[in-house]
Amino acid sequence: MEHVNGSSQKEIRVWCDGCYDMVHFGHANSLRQAKALGHKLIVGIHNDADISKNKGPPVFTQEERYKMVRGIKWVDEVVEDAPYVTTLETLDKYDCDFCVHGDDITLTAEGVDTYHLVKKADRYKEVSRTAGVSTTDLVGRMLLMTRNHFKQGDQEYSVEKDGSSKLGQDHSARSPWTGCSQFLPTTQKIIQFSDGKPPKPTDKIVYVAGAFDLFHVGHLDFLEKAKSNGDYLIVGLHTDPVVNQYKGGNYPIMNLHERVLSVLACKYVNEVVIGAPYSVTKDLMEHFNVDLVCHGQTPIATDVGNIDPYAVPKQMGKFILIDSGNTITTEDIVERIIRHRLEFEDRNTKKEKKEIEVFEAMQRVKLAEKSG
C-alpha cells in the first residue's frame, strides 16, 4: 500500500463477524465504519446451526445471508461458516489485524461474550451501533404488522379488526441494545452511504423503481440484473403512503429513510431518488438522462386513474421486463416470520433477558469501580 505522501504502509485487514440475518442499514453502517479503520474488510458469517443453538432460528438461510453480505459495497471478502466465538486463530488465518464489532454485546447460549478472546489480546475495536434498528426490532414489527409502526411519538396505535387499539411497537422492551428506539435520519448519514459520483457522459443509465421494503436477496438479484443492462443504476424509492396505496395492508414495514439507506448500501446501486413518483414521467427520464427503465416479474399496479406507470418509457422504447431468477418477495419474508411466530417471539424474549442481565452486571462493576 502507498500513503499519499509516498511512504509504504502495510495493508490493514479488518475482521467483522456475525449472523447478518435480515441484513439492514444498521449492519451496513457497522461494516462501513469497520472498513474505514483499514484497507480491506473481511466478514465472517455464522452458519444456521450455530445461530439456532446460540440465538434462535434465523429468518434467512445461511446461503441467503452469505449473498446479502457480499452485496454490501464496503465488503471485500466473505468467510462462510465462521466460528460463533471469535478466536485469535481465525484472525490470523485470514491475516486480519483486529476485529471490529458494534457497542452492543453478543453472547453464546451459555452467556459468554463471543469477543472475550480478542478483547483480552487487545485485537478488538468498537464502532457505534446504529440506534433505531435491529433484526430483533424488524422481527417485532412483522409480528405486530401494524399500519403505523414507522410513525414515532409518545403512543403508536393500530386499529385491529375488532376496532380495538394496540401498541405499534414493543415499548416494554428494556434492553439498551435491542429495545425500541427512534431512527433519526440525517443528511450526513445519506452522504456517508452515497458514492457521490455522477454518471460519466458515456454511461448507459438504468432506472428502476419500487418499495424495496425489508431489503432482501430478491431485491439484490433484481438490482444486479438491472445493473447488468447498463453502467449506472438509479433506484427510485416510493414514499410510504404510495407504497401503502399499491401494497395495501400494513406496508411498508420500513419507512422511506430506512429504505433509502438499505438500498444505498447495495454495491450495484449508484444513486437513489428519494420519494420518486409512482409513474415514470418524461421529466424524470430527461432529468436523469435515463436510457432504460427496468421492472421485474412482480405485477405492476396501475396509478391513480388506471394509468400504466410505465407508459412513458414504453412509448419511448426504453422499457424492458427482466427476470432475476429469484422469486422471493417481501411478503414471503413476512410469511416466514408469521409461520414461526412463537419461535421468534421466544427468541426475542430470551435475547433481551440475557442482554439485560449482562448490562446490569456491567453497571454494577462500573458503580463498584467508582465507589472504590
TrEMBL record:
Pfam families linked to this entry: CTP_transf_like
Coiled-coil ranges (or none): none
Keywords in alphabetical order: Lipid biosynthesis, Lipid metabolism, Nucleotidyltransferase, Phospholipid biosynthesis, Phospholipid metabolism, Transferase
MF-aspect GO terms: ethanolamine-phosphate cytidylyltransferase activity
Domain Cytidyltransferase-like per the UniProt entry, residue ranges: 15-139, 208-302
Enzyme Commission number, as recorded: 2.7.7.14
Basic and acidic residues: compositionally biased ranges: 154-173
CDD domains (alphabetical): CCT, ECT
GO aspect biological process, one term: phosphatidylethanolamine biosynthetic process
Manganese as UniProt keyword: no
Region feature (Disordered): 154-174
Pathway(s) where this gene product acts: Lipid metabolism; Phospholipid metabolism; phosphatidylethanolamine biosynthesis; phosphatidylethanolamine from ethanolamine: step 2/3
A single GO cellular-component term on record: cytoplasm
Family statement drawn from the similarity comment of this UniProt entry: Belongs to the cytidylyltransferase family.
Protein name, as recorded: ethanolamine-phosphate cytidylyltransferase
Organism: Aedes aegypti (Yellowfever mosquito)
